[in-house]
Amino acid sequence: MMIRLRHLSKIYRSGDVFVPALQNVDLDIDYGEFVAIVGASGSGKSTLMNIIGCLDRPTRGVYELEGHDVGRMNDIQRAKVRSRRIGFVFQSFNLLSRPSALSQVELPMIYAGMGDRRRRAAHALAEVGLSDRMHHKPSQLSGGQQQRVAIARALVTDPALILADEPTGALDTKTTGDIVGLFERLNREHGITVIFVTHEPEVAEHTRRTITLRDGRIISDVPTARSTVVQFPGTVAPAAPAAQAAGEAPA
Ligand SMILES: Nc1ncnc2c1ncn2[C@@H]1O[C@H](COP(=O)(O)OP(=O)(O)OP(=O)(O)O)[C@@H](O)[C@H]1O
Ligand SMILES: [Mg+2]
Questions:
Q1: d(CA 21, CA 216)
Q2: Mean pLDDT of the residues in the chain
Q3: Percent of the chain at pLDDT above 90?
Q4: Atom of ligand 1 at shortest range from CA of 44
Q5: Atom nearest to 10 CA in ligand 1
Q6: Angle 65-67-71 (CA atoms, 0-180°, nearest 5)?
């Protein structure tokens, strides 16, 4: 199991007020999954993403990432896990304003201590369809292109897990479709586990599993209906001969 949460709670304190942002969450997410997290504003989605991403620690309960107890790691160990295993994508892209796309994508490799950075960065930008925009700055790119740079930056360290908190929140419908399609491809072709938060039901529909939060609790965790029919013919294909065989049996 890649991600394992047990009785996990996160309680924020501001002054005398305690805010239970997550309460008794149990959750398993395996390698290669493609998951949407949905729920009303304030339901705990970003809190959950921050904990899964090792940016924050639970108040109570256990979080194991790839068998390691994150709650017991110190800041340096968590930073190491983040830079080696996890890529982050945010609603607001979080790009630096001055460097070129190529330089931005090289940055996480410096933190991860990786070599051959220019070539890898160019490759990641090609992967997201931006070969012809490598030397552009964010101000010279569209919103969708900026988000592609951010995805290339998340991708370039070869992470096992990509976490995206409302990655399409600032994009129009067409661009949203492109970006979701890109995540789908990274999941399918590279086997990267992808977890994203979204407010849009039609975006959640593209994943294979939808987890709904309310008031810091998981109130629903179901396979996404559409994907079993439309997106993964490989998984439904065996059903056809089986149905046929069943149909033939009486004859
Ligand atoms: N640093 C903090 N200090 C105190 N309370 C916080 C903090 N961060 C979040 N909260 C509270 O925790 C709860 C969950 O917040 P969270 O940001 O996880 O919600 P969300 O589901 O991501 O909402 P949105 O859809 O608006 O982004 C909210 O009630 C919020 O006010
Ligand atoms: Mg949020």
A1: 5
A2: 90
A3: 86
A4: 18
A5: 12
A6: 55
The full length of the chain comes to 251
Q: How far apart are CA 47 and CA 68, in angstroms?
A: 20
Q: Does ligand 1 have an atom closer than 6 angstroms to the CB of 104?
A: no
CB of 146 within 8 A of CB of 95?
A: yes
Site to substitute for ligand 1 among 12, 214, 219, most atoms within 8 A of C-beta:
12
Cβ–Cβ < 8 Å for 226, 202: no
70-92 pLDDT per residue, tens: 999 999 999 999 999 999 999 99
Nearest in space to 148 (alpha carbons), one of 175, 166, 173, 187: 175
* pLDDT higher than threshold 80 for residue 117: yes
DSSP one-letter code for 139? G
User: Is 251 a residue whose pLDDT tops 50?
Assistant: no
Ligand 1 contacts CB of residue 91 (under 6 A) = no
What's the CA-to-centroid distance between 44 and ligand 1, angstroms?
Answer: 6
3-state secondary structure of 54: coil
212 falls in which pLDDT band (50, 70, 90)?
A: very high
Mean pLDDT calculated for residue range 135-149? 97
Using an 8 Å Cβ cutoff, are 212 and 39 in contact? yes
Cβ of residue 198 lying under 6 Å from some atom of ligand 1: no
Q: Which tokens belong to 159?
A: 């992470």
If one compares 34 and 251, the residue with the highest pLDDT of the two is 34
pTM: 0.89
